[in-house]
Specification:
It is built from eleven helices and eleven strands. By secondary structure, it is an alpha/beta fold. The chain has a single domain, classed as Glycoside hydrolase/deacetylase (TIM Barrel, Alpha-Beta Barrel). Strands 1, 4, 5, 6, 7 and 11 form a six-stranded parallel β-sheet that branches. Helix 1 runs parallel beside helix 10. The N and C termini lie close together (9 Å). Bound molecules: zinc ion (ZN). Zinc ion binds next to loops.
Length: 308
């Protein structure tokens, strides 16, 4: 992020902090605090890609979060969403892809600090040891995690999740057999290799355009407890606990602070709907109320900062 944007974001964060604190306290008193699910990719000390965070920044980010939020597992986040009541905002830590570099310092540190973590891996890269295509495209050959590393992490309490077999854009797959390979077979093979259930699934890329109702349905039928998107957005009590919206965290410290303290602009994020209209209808009252409240706040707080 360019320096001028960082400065502007910092100004915006400081200026809106009192209003946010007031609103967040009010929400907490009403049991409406969100469950925030964050995702990182690669923690290493060469900031060679936009999805790499340095070890020092990662520790600073998580330590800052720990002082202000309850750090919980995805299962606990789901429980609070399902219960329809949450009196304290909570944060879940997740990772996507599966980089061996994460096992040098970041994961051992999380384990040592007893911070719950869900780690989504792309099975083919784990099995074949091949770097990810999105890194190769930039000329990097970062090593993926091996199965032994994942087994050790699982034994230490890290929840291993599925991030498909080959990291495709699932919305572009029309053949149900190919979709099954990515969503269902990836789960079954990973479970067999780990010797424990794989309960969570994360869409590759995870933006609106990369999601599909067919993949959601297949994940549900396969017995996943939840699937994660990655376009941003908070999860509120009463929302659909099967779809966990996540926010990118492999960014600067100020951007993370801005997002987790409920940036009014992010409150307007539209939830991806994969279900039929009758199920959507049941939840619309909840969301309708939220959007009325947040739209009015947003127009007061941040009319000019939509580019940050
Ligand atoms: Zn990915």
């Amino acid at each position: 992020m360019p320096l001028w944007k960082l400065l502007l974001l910092n100004l915006y964060y400081q200026a809106t902090r009192p209003a946010r604190s007031w609103r967040n306290r009010k929400q907490a008193a009403r049991g409406r605090s969100p469950a925030i699910v964050l995702y990182w990719h690669r923690i290493a000390d060469d900031r060679t890609t936009p999805w790499t965070t340095s070890n020092a920044t990662f520790v600073r980010q998580v330590s800052w979060l720990r002082k202000r939020f309850q750090l919980v597992s995805l299962a606990e986040a789901q429980r609070r969403i399902r219960r329809g009541y949450n009196h304290r905002p909570c944060v879940s830590v997740t990772f996507d892809d599966g980089y061996a570099d994460n096992c040098r310092r970041a994961i051992p540190w999380l384990i040592e600090q007893q911070i719950p973590c869900t780690y989504f891996v792309t099975l083919r890269n784990v099995l074949e040891g091949e770097p990810f295509s999105h890194d190769l495209a930039l000329g990097h050959r970062f090593e993926p995690n091996g199965m032994e590393q994942l087994r050790a992490m699982a034994r230490a309490g890290v929840e291993i999740g599925a991030h498909t077999y080959s990291h495709p854009d699932l919305s572009s797959i029309a053949d149900p057999r190919m979709l099954r390979r990515e969503v269902v077979a990836a789960k079954e093979e990973l479970q067999a290799a780990l010797g424990q259930p794989v309960r969570y699934f994360a869409f590759p890329f995870g933006q609106y355009a990369n999601l599909s109702p067919e993949a959601f349905e297949m994940a549900k039928q396969a017995g996943y407890a939840a699937v994660c998107s990655a376009y941003g957005g908070y999860n509120f009590p009463g929302d659909d606990p099967f779809h966990l919206q996540r926010i990118a965290a492999d960014e600067t410290m100020i951007r993370l602070k801005n997002w987790v303290t409920m940036d009014p602009r992010k409150l307007r994020t539209r939830r991806y709907e994969y279900q039929g209209p009758e199920v959507r209808g049941q939840r619309s009252e909840n969301r309708g109320l939220k959007s009325i409240i947040f739209h009015s706040q947003t127009s007061i707080l941040c009319p000019q900062f939509h580019l940050l």
